[in-house]
Amino acid sequence: MQEEIDFYFDESKEAMAATVVHLQKELKKVRTGKANPGIFDSVMVDYYGSPTPLKQVANVGTIDARTLNIQPWEKKMIDPIERAIFEANLGLTPQNDGENIRITIPMLTEERRKNLVKQIKALTEDAKVGIRNTRRDLMELLKKAVKDGYPEDMGKKAEAKAQQMTDDYTKQAEDFAAIKEKDIMKV
Question: What is the pLDDT of residues 58-67, one digit of tens each?
């Protein structure tokens, strides 16, 4: 019975960690007014008929604090890359010079910063809901195990451990959001 409980905890821990990792990926997509190649992580380019991550068809780098440079490995990939950036709906306008694609990141207005902070808070809340849902599922499994003969005092300890694990992952999510929020509000 203890092995089952340990298995439930391992699964729950993996699910909570995956939720935090997903939040980190989503937060990377939120622009801060600085050039960051990570905003293209989700951009898929049509590479000879199959969707391929941008990083696998071009070098993505920064020229300065507000300019990104995309250098395709094949010249004929410039148009598909431009199209993919437009379709990704990142709010960025690529400039094609025939060999490279340059993207200038516009400065953020105060209103835009506030909207981005709201977006970050919504993403964080979604992550926290995911973490709490995982905890709820774990608690149900623990209660079922107690009904099936698992010692009640051990069940209470396991529930306390589940709550502590939930608190730890929730704090991680909040910490990542606070860092991103601070980065956005910095002028």
Answer: 999 998 888 9
Closest CA to 121 of 168, 176, 165, 166: 176
Tokens of residue 61, six digits:
């780098």
Q: Which residue from 89, 68, 66, 91 is spatially nearest to 58, judged by alpha carbons? A: 68
Q: Which of 3.40.50.280, 3.40.50.720, 3.30.1360.40, 1.10.10.10 is the CATH number of 37-104?
A: 3.30.1360.40
Domain parsing of the chain, residue ranges: 2-29+109-185, 37-104
pLDDT for 127-149, tens place per residue? 999 999 999 999 999 999 999 98
Q: Are 177 and 123 in contact (CB under 8 A)?
A: yes
Fold of 2-29+109-185: Topoisomerase I; Chain A, domain 4 (1.10.132)
> 52-80 burial string, b = 16+ CB within 10 Å, else e?
bebeebbebeeeeeeebbbebeeeebbeb
Question: Interhelix angle for 152-185 vs 110-147, to 10°?
Answer: 170
d(CA 143, CA 1): 13
Q: What pTM did the predictor assign? A: 0.73
128, amino acid identity: K
